[in-house]
Write a structure and sequence with these properties.
- Keywords: Aminotransferase, Transferase.
- This is DegT/DnrJ/EryC1/StrS family aminotransferase.
- It is a single chain.
- The protein is α/β, with parallel strands linked by helices.
- It has helices at about 10-30, 35-50, 60-70, 90-95, 115-120, 140-150, 205-215, 235-265, 295-305, 335, 350-365, and strands spanning about 55-60, 80-85, 100-105, 125-130, 155-160, 165, 170, 180, 195-200, 215-220, 220-225, 270, 280, 285-290, 340-345.
- The strands form four sheets. The chain has a seven-stranded mixed β-sheet with strand order 1-9-8-5-4-2-3, with helices on both faces.
- Helix 3 packs across helix 7 (about 205-215).
- The protein is globular.
- Bound molecules: pyridoxal-5'-phosphate (PLP).
Length: about 375
């Protein structure tokens, strides 16, 4: 039986083997590992790709969020609003910087931040919003920018799942104040290890973020403040340079597969499909459906050789790490949806024929209970 994989990094490598191998070899033979041609090139090209003026390389997506928030220089103890359905990195950074996480709900249809819920959480102490473009679907940036304007809030875009996503034809990342990207291997654009980047159109923020990530230095041994070490190295940048060229093509494949799922699963009453807003270019880092019988369905698909995932099995407010906030399970829709979410296989490694098999398996599950 051919396994339909959830993620297939080996397939990607095989496709680009020659270019990747030679890019890696070049870095090693030049032996410039930190700071060099490859990272400069990647940061320039990725800034262009996201239509941002500045792009700073960092060690991973979690650091990108943390450094982005730190660069905003918010007063200690500021409340920062984070959607309840995300990966913990979105909220972790807030607490690590001495701020307070305030969760708000997600939309039950497109899973991004709920505007009414967000509004209800704003207080005098609210200083920023972490806008997570979850599953590669952009947040409603127009609504967010309006709220941010009215309440003098900063917007940090968590773009870890949204390389190339667009809100009303504009690439996300630098639509708010500052944006954070991850190049974790499994992301739409992934390195061969950890890597991340920060984008912004604000040159002061760019300088600040770059300094924080590089020991607060303006010169080799001239440190203006205590920063930290979080850099994108040249090996990772060289690999990303090769892969960036294929990203549009890969994204189109993701969208094609998503469209196929949407069209062919739309008549199944037993599942809820993700909504793509008319103004969204969703890049489908994940294609997430909902089913009341999620666990049995997942097991069934596994038996049919179809790998799936769950993002995320425990909504953030329900995690042990956030017990101290004292949220009840009924506080958020996100806390009730997490038992129903199921991520179907999606990615450049799949063909429409694979998608057809997935659809067929799901239909047979519900037609023969
Ligand atoms: C992956 C991810 C991150 C963290 O990125 P890392 O590179 O793994 O540190 C942050 N936010 C979201 C939504 C993610 O999916």
């Amino acid at each position: 039986m051919k396994i339909i994989k959830f993620l297939d990094l080996k397939y990607q490598y095989e496709m680009l083997k020659e270019d990747i191998d030679s890019a890696i070899n070049d870095v090693i033979s030049n032996s410039a590992f930190i700071g060099g041609e490859e990272s400069t090139r990647f940061l320039n090209d990725f800034a262009d790709f996201q239509n941002a003026e500045h792009c700073i390389g960092v060690a991973n997506g979690t650091d990108a969020i943390e450094i982005a928030i730190e660069a905003l220089e918010l007063p200690k103890g500021s409340e920062i609003i984070v959607p309840a359905n995300s990966f913990i990195a979105s909220s972790e950074a807030v607490t690590r910087l001495g701020h307070k996480v305030v969760f708000c709900d997600c939309n039950p249809d497109n899973y991004t931040i709920s505007i009414p819920s967000l509004k209800a959480k704003i207080t005098q102490n609210t200083k920023a919003i972490v806008a997570v473009h979850l599953y590669g679907h952009p947040c409603d940036m127009e609504a967010l920018l309006k709220i941010a304007n009215e309440h003098s809030l900063k917007i940090i875009e968590d773009c870890a799942q949204a390389h190339g996503a667009e809100f009303k034809g504009k690439r996300i990342g630098a639509l708010g104040d500052i944006g954070a990207f991850s190049f974790y291997p499994g992301k739409n654009l992934g390195a061969y290890g950890d890597a991340g980047a920060i984008v912004t159109n604000d040159s002061d923020l760019a300088v600040k973020a770059k300094m924080i990530s590089n020991h607060g230095r303006i010169d080799k041994y001239n440190h203006v403040f205590e920063g930290r070490n979080s850099r994108l190295d040249n090996l990772q940048a060289a690999i990303l340079n090769v892969k960036l060229k294929s990203l549009e093509e890969w994204t189109k494949r993701r969208i094609e597969i998503a469209d196929y799922y949407m069209e062919n699963l739309k008549d199944l009453d037993e599942i809820v499909l993700p909504k793509r807003e008319t103004w969204a270019r969703q890049v489908y880092h994940l294609f997430v459906i909902r089913s009341e019988r999620r666990d049995v369905l997942q097991k069934f698909l596994e038996q049919q050789g179809i790998q799936t995932g769950i993002h995320y099995p425990i909504a953030l407010p329900k995690l042990k790490a956030y017990e101290y906030l004292g949220h009840g399970h009924r506080d958020f829709i996100a806390c009730q949806l997490d038992t129903k979410l199921l991520s179907l296989p999606i990615g450049e490694h799949l063909t429409l024929n694979d998608a057809e098999k997935v659809v067929h398996a799901i239909k047979s599950f519900f037609n023969n209970p």
